[in-house]
Write a structure and sequence with these properties.
By secondary structure, this protein is of the alpha/beta class. It has helices at 55-65, 90-109, 121-130, 150-161, 164-173, 175-188, 204-217, 240-244, 269-285, 300-306, and strands at 2-4, 8-15, 21-28, 38-41, 70-73, 114-119, 136-142, 198-199, 221-227, 254-259, 309-310. The chain has a 9-stranded mixed β-sheet. β4 (38-41), α1 (55-65) and β5 form a beta-alpha-beta unit. α1 packs parallel to α9. It is globular.
Length: 311
């Protein structure tokens, strides 16, 4: 079944082992720029491929109008996709499904480069997978898991107590104070990782740091988008991502954006429009040149670390 719009085509597709996975492709009506990577949008938790508030429908159509081929699909056991028959643990199954999606795009549509987009658990799946597959040239991580920092706690408490001027004075003007509290926070608070994943190793933060390091070394382009409007916020300030992974040298591979007045599921139509504009603009302006040297090949040490995560 295909739906023809003015400037793109949507089609239901099935792929994977036994064609158990179901998705929707949105393809530009005219192939105007073969240099643009395809886009694969991942599930958030148990929400199927439409996304919260149909946000992935509008996002995929806008990306298709901008010249990207887009696939949004359901992981095994979600939406219209059949349960995975391999008996793998959930995280292994989901990462295997991402590989099946990229294999299908490559063999069917001759796609060689892909951007993965995910919100929350989708972002965590994207970062855990992206470094391992040379076809992944970019990642859009919306509210990925970010370890807390000292400033996170201070900001959180001061917001509750309306001590805005005090917070700004201490942490925007005193770098030394911030660094000291970062170290203290890491000593007192042991990170356990995202709520939907369990880390079986000793240090969840160090594991994620390894993954981000491998991703940056491969020169996979990162667009990290965080939201600030939560009852129990994941992050309280724009630079929390950089502070939490301060051992990683992202160089020019990272763009960081903070939607302070957006909630976690982008329930505001205005915020969803701004998100779509941001993603399309980033895809247009960014040069996606993943490194191909031996040093940027998938790191077996990082792969071992990822094996310590279970869902």
């Amino acid at each position: 079944m295909a739906a023809i719009k003015d400037d793109f085509t949507e089609r239901v597709v099935q792929f994977g082992p036994g064609k158990c996975l179901v998705g929707i492709t949105a393809q530009p009506a005219e192939t105007s720029d073969g240099d643009k990577p395809a886009v694969v949008i991942l599930n958030t938790g148990t929400i199927h491929r439409v996304g919260h508030h149909r946000m992935y429908v509008s996002m995929s159509r806008k990306l298709a109008r901008a010249g990207h081929t887009v696939l949004r699909f359901d992981f095994s056991g979600l939406g219209d996709s059949a349960p995975h028959s391999s008996g793998q643990p959930l995280l292994r199954s989901n990462l295997s499904d991402i590989r099946s999606a990229l294999d299908w795009l490559e063999t069917t549509l001759k796609v060689s480069r892909v951007i993965l987009i995910g919100l929350c658990s989708g972002a965590d799946h994207a970062i855990l997978y992206g470094h391992s597959d040379p076809r992944v040239a970019g990642l859009v991580l919306i509210d990925p898991y970010i370890p807390t920092t000292a400033r996170y706690f201070i900001d959180y408490i001061s917001r509750r107590m309306d001590l805005k001027s005090w917070r700004q004075f201490n942490f925007r003007k005193s770098k030394l104070m911030r660094l000291l509290l970062e170290r203290l926070s890491r000593g007192l608070y042991r990170e356990t990782g995202p709520q939907h994943l369990t880390f079986q190793g000793l240090d969840a933060r160090a594991s994620l740091e390894q993954v981000y390091h491998a991703t940056a070394q491969a020169r996979v382009q990162l667009l990290v988008i965080c939201t600030g409007l939560h009852h129990a916020p994941r992050q309280t300030y724009r630079e929390q991502f950089i502070n939490a992974f301060d051992a990683v040298s992202f160089d020019d591979t990272l763009r960081l954006e903070f939607f302070e007045d957006a909630d976690h599921t982008f329930s505001s139509a205005r915020c969803r429009d701004e998100l779509n504009d941001l993603v399309v603009g980033w895809g247009h302006a960014t040069k996606f040149n993943r490194a191909t040297s031996a040093s940027s090949s998938p790191n077996p040490t990082v792969s071992d670390t990822i094996n310590a995560w279970i869902a």
